[in-house]
Amino acid sequence: MIVEAILLTIITASTPLVLAAIGELVCERAGVLNLGVEGMMVMGAVGAFTAAHATGSPWIGMMAGMITGAVFSLLFGFLTLTLVANQVATGLALTILGQGLSAMIGEGLVGRPGVKMPSLDIPVLSDIPVIGPLLFDQDIFFYLSIAIVAGVSWFLFKTRRGLVLRSVGDNHASAHALGINVIGIRYLAVMFGGACAGLAGAQLSLVYTPQWSENMAAGRGWIALALVVFASWRPLGVLVGGYLFGAVTIGQLHAQAFGIAVPSQFLSALPYVVTVLVLVIISQNRRMTLINTPASLGKSFVPDR
Amino acid sequence: MKTLNFALAASAAIIAGLYATGASAQEDVKACFVYVGSATDGGWTQAHDIARQELEATLDIETAYIENVPEGPDAERAIERMARSGCTIVFTTSFGFMEPTLKVAAKYPDVKFEHATGFKTADNVATYNSRFYEGRYISGVIAGSISESGIGGYIGSFPIPEVVMGIDAFQLGAQSVNPDFKTKVVWANTWFDPGREADAAKALIDQGVDVLAQHTDTTAPMQIAAERGIKAFGQASDMIEAGPETQLTAIIDTWAPYYIKRVEAVQNGTWESEQSWDGLKDGILTMAPYTNMPDDVKKLAEETEAKIISGELKPFTGPVTLQDGTPWLAEGEEADDGTLLGLNVLVEGVEGSLPKSE
C-alpha cells in the first residue's frame, strides 16, 4: 500500500518537470536557449489559478495557463529573435519579470481556495490492482505529459518537419540557405516551449497544490532546464530524468519519515547531486554529447549578416 | 577617480545632513519596517504588516516599509535608507537582518532599532520575539487527545532553535495526555515551497500520521490534510480558509500590541534597549478558534491556554528525557530562556533526526 502511495506522489511531483522540460527541449532543438522557464512556469501558474478561480472550471484554468505561458514566451521571442538580444540575459530577465509580474497579478489571490483538477478515472482499467490507480486514474496533466513526450519524439525524429526544426538548431545558416524560415520556426518552437511551461505551471496551481502563492514554482523551472541537458536533448531521456528526479525528491521525504538517520540537508540536496553525477557521466562520453547538442544553440541568427 | 569619490562623498554628506535636519525639525514619530518577504505573503511578513497598519491607525503616526529585502549585503542598504529618510524607529523583521541592523544602528545613534528574533543588542538596538512554543504545546495537547493512531506529523523548515523548540513543545504537550504519542518529523529545508511542503505532508500521512503540524509558511500542508481527511494546525496566520473542516487551531503572530507599546515608549521618551520575549499572556501570540474537535478536547485546550497565561504551566518543565534516553530536565526543573534560545536537542517520542548544523 505504502509503495503505491509513494508512487502516486512521485507521479504528481514529476509531471510538471517533464512538461516544462519537454517544451524547453523542442525550443533548444531549434537552437534557442530560453532560461526563462521558471518565469514562464510561474506565469502559467498564476494564469491558470486566476482563470480557474474566476470561472470555477479547472479546464478553463488549464487552457489559460497554457496560453499565458505561450504569450509570455512571445516576449522572449520578440527580444531574442527579432531584436537579436542576448538569449541568456533575456532568459534570465524573463524569469525575474515573470516572478514579479505573477506576484502582482496574484496579489489578491493569496490564500484563496483553489479549484482542483479532477482525476480522470478510466473505467475497468483503473480497477486493476496497483497499476490501475497509478496509470489509469490520474489527472489530465499526467496523460498530456506522456502524450507530449511521445508526440515530440515522433515529430522530431520521424517527420520531415521535425528534421527541418533540428536542422535550424544545428546549422541555421545552412537551413536559411536552403530556403527555410529560420526565425519563423524558432518563434513556433519558443511558443511551444512557453505553452508547455505554462501547462507545467497550471499543474502546480491546479493539481500539485491547488492554491496561489508567490514564487510557487520554487526552482522547478531550473530543474527542468537541467533535465534537458541531463536527457542530452532526447525526449525519452526527459521522461526518465523527470521521474528519477521526482522519485529522489519524494524518496528523501519518506526516508526522513521512516527515521532513516541521514542528514536531511543531504537528502534535500540529493536530487541535485544526482543531476550533477549524471551530467558528469554523460559528459564522459564526448562523442554522444557532441552528437546531441544542437550546434547553433544559443546563437542569434540574422538573415542578412 | 579620487575627485569623483570626493564629490560623491561630499554630496552624500550634504544629503545626509539635509535628512538629519529634516528629521530633527519634525517632532512626530515615524515608524519604519524592513520586511524579508512581500507584505501580502499570507504568512510571516503579512502578520507584521497587519500590525504596522494597526499601529498607524491606533497612534495616528506615519509609517513606511520596504518589502522583499533579501537577507545579506542588500539588507544593510535597505535599513540605512530607512534610517536616513527620517525614521525615528526602524523594525527589521527577519533573523538574517541582525548584523546589518547593528551596523546601521552604530552609524545612526539617534534612530531606534528593533530587530525581530535576534539575540544581539546595542544602546539603540532592542530585540523582540514571540514564545511560539506556548501555542505549539497547546497544539500538542490537542493532537495527543484526538489522534487515533497516536502518531503526529511535523513538517520542519530548518533545524534552528526556534523550530526545534516547537517540535519539542508539541511532543511534550501530546505526551501530557498520551504518554505513547510519537511525533514524526520531516525537514522540508525551506520556509516557503508549497510543492515541497505538500509532498512532505503526503509522505507523513502515507506513513500513518493522522494529525499534522507545520513550521513552514504556506497553506499547502493544510490543503493536503483536508484532502486526505485528517486534522491539522495552522501556522503564523489563521489558515481556516484552506481547511474549514481540517484546522484545529493555529498559532497567530499578533505583533501590534508590541509595536504600539514600543512606539509609545519613543513618544514618551522612555524607550530603552531590551530583549523582549513575550508570549500568550502579552497577546503577542494568539490562538485561532479551537474548531473541529470534541467539546472535552476544546475545554482541555482552553484550560491549558489559561494555565500558560497564568504562569501555572511552563511547557519545558521536567521530567523530560531526550530522544536517545538520556535525562534532560529533572522533576520540576524548568528550562531557562538561554537554554531554549539555543535549543538543539529533540525529546523522547520524537521520531526523525536532528541534522547537525556546524
Automatic annotation (TrEMBL), chain A:
Keywords: Cell membrane, Membrane, Transmembrane, Transmembrane helix. The chain crosses the membrane at residues 30-52, 59-85, 140-157, 222-245, 257-282. Coiled coil: none annotated. InterPro entries: ABC_transp_permease. It comes from the Bacteria. GO terms for molecular function: transmembrane transporter activity. This is Urea ABC transporter, permease protein UrtB. The keyword Cell membrane applies. GO terms for cellular component: plasma membrane. It is a multi-pass membrane protein. Pfam families: BPD_transp_2 (PF02653). It is found in: Cell membrane.
TrEMBL record, chain B:
InterPro entries: ABC-Purine-Binding, PnrA-like. The lineage of its organism: Bacteria, Pseudomonadati, Pseudomonadota, Alphaproteobacteria, Hyphomicrobiales. This is Purine-binding protein. It comes from Martelella mediterranea DSM 17316. PANTHER family: ABC TRANSPORTER SUBSTRATE-BINDING PROTEIN. Residues 30-312 form the ABC transporter substrate-binding protein PnrA-like domain. GO terms for cellular component: plasma membrane. Gene3D superfamilies: 3.40.50.2300. Keywords: Signal. Residues 1-25 form the signal peptide. It holds the Pfam family Bmp.
